[in-house]
Amino acid sequence: MKKAWAVLVLMALGAAPGWAQLGGWVDTWSCSTLGGWAWNSAEPDTPITVDLYEDGVYIETVTADNFRQDLVNAGIGNGVHGFQINTPAKFQDGLWHQVNFAYGGTMTWVSNAHQALMCSGSTPGATQMGYTYYSSDTFSSINTSNWTVNGSVSGGWAGLTSTSNGSLISTVPVQGPSTAFYEVRTILNLTASGGTYINYLRATPDANFLTATGSAFALVLNNVTVSGSSCTATFSEYSMVNGAATLLSSMPVVCNQRSEFRSVMTEISTTPGTAQVESYLNGVQLVGYQPSSSQINAAGQPGVGVANVPIRNGVIEADLGPWDNVPPNPVAASSVAVSAFPNRIDISFAGTTDNPGGSGVLEYSFFRDGQWIGNSYTASFHDATVQPGQTYHYAIYSYDFHYNNTPIDLPNITTPPAGFQDPNRIGVNALGTYWGAQGQESIDTRSGNLNYAMPLLAAKTRGLSVPLSLVYNSQNWQQTGTST
């Protein structure tokens, strides 16, 4: 342990200018706690401060004055150089935040201080817009009361790691409306290339994909390649039955140095009892799969696994959540706006919300005349495959992360005939007819667009005058086509 710490200390010291004096490491990143250590070797027994930044904006200053025995063991002064704070409430909004720590009063970053964090609750067990996980673990150590250990894994400041391979299969009873359907969510620290990271669904206690033992559905991230701020990997789905693994799908993915990896075993709503597997990386849907009964256990526990993890990488949090079987709220019909053109129909609406305690709204699917035509993560869609003078019927389906859905049917939409001319004219045109005063304001009598400039003041100095004016042009605001 001392040898590993010595390497870590040298890395931390070497990361900052004035390395012979300032050193530190941020080793705790979670939705409940941020922490690490920092010191000045020129004053080895005097605490220093660190500054927390979020998206480049200063948040607060923290004094590193907590005692840590591991620092004493590593020869870091008197060990009174640790810091720990509650993760600020402003981070609990379901959005990604770039979080950094700098040595107090400087812009010199503490080592391992640049991370992306996404949280939606006050604790790791309450995230994703009210969806509550029934079991959470940050792997400061391996809790054998909650996990069956297969192979070789370890816990610590980097979370769950392994220099060879291993798996942890949960022994905590699955909670919620079904023990066969649930979610596994892991937070991965990917600061270096390498490693394999696995979410297990319906696993037998002995399941370990990398040693081909047991049975499970394995969702695998590997081929992690980190270069500067870039992170890429390969996502694969495997069915493993009695140690025999079958590759079902694979795709390249873009990751972050701090990545959220969610895998869900859910039920197809139109076919009760039929399983559907969905996975997401940082909120982006990956390849889904509907396994046959021969490819998956009828029951089994969630789990996580790692292999060949480089130093500083690891699974820093694992959350196990119940099945969300309640559909999200439908799109409000009153919020839908439609613009129809001969060869395009634009649809926009107010985004909907999930049910209280739901897994969160994922996306919207669009159907035309009963056929699927596309998905959107935003509350808008553009259909450029329509024909002039035709009538179409659309439906919008709202999906949550457990793939429940709620549809809404729109009134029939008819496209204008070929040769349709937009009656609106954009902007204030040079050949138009205008109303206005002294050339400072112009109203286009055809389009109705307004353009004006209002002098405010003139800043003057010796031999120089700089006028300042308020300029407005309404061509940035336009409603086109027909709307319902």
Account of the protein in words:
- By secondary structure, this protein is mainly beta.
- Helix content is 4%, strand content 46%.
- The chain has helices at 2-14, 69-73; strands at 22-29, 33-40, 48-54, 57-64, 66-67, 80-86, 96-103, 115-118, 135-137, 147-151, 165-170, 182-189, 196-203, 216-227, 230-241, 244-254, 258-267, 275-281, 284-285, 301-307, 314-322, 337-341, 344-348, 361-368, 371-376, 380-383, 391-392, 394-400, 405-409, 413-414, 434-435, 441-444, 450-461, 464-473.
- Strands 10-11-20-13-14-15-16 form a 7-stranded antiparallel sheet, with no helix packed on it. Strands 9-21-12-17-18-19 form a 6-stranded antiparallel sheet, with no helix packed on it.
- Strand 17 and strand 18 form a beta hairpin.
- The longest helix is centred in the first third of the chain and has 13 residues, at 2-14.
- The protein is flat, with a radius of gyration of 28 Å.
- Mean pLDDT is 83; it is low at 1-20, 121-129, 431-438 and 477-484.
List the helices and strands and how they pair.
Layout: H1 2-14, E1 22-29, E2 33-40, E3 48-54, E4 57-64, E5 66-67, H2 69-73, E6 80-86, E7 96-103, E8 115-118, E9 135-137, E10 147-151, E11 165-170, E12 182-189, E13 196-203, E14 216-227, E15 230-241, E16 244-254, E17 258-267, E18 275-281, E19 284-285, E20 301-307, E21 314-322, E22 337-341, E23 344-348, E24 361-368, E25 371-376, E26 380-383, E27 391-392, E28 394-400, E29 405-409, E30 413-414, E31 434-435, E32 441-444, E33 450-461, E34 464-473
Antiparallel strand pairs: 1-2, 2-6, 3-4, 3-7, 5-6, 7-8, 9-21, 10-11, 11-20, 12-17, 12-21, 13-14, 13-20, 14-15, 15-16, 17-18, 18-19, 22-23, 23-26, 24-25, 24-28, 27-30, 28-29, 31-32, 32-33, 33-34
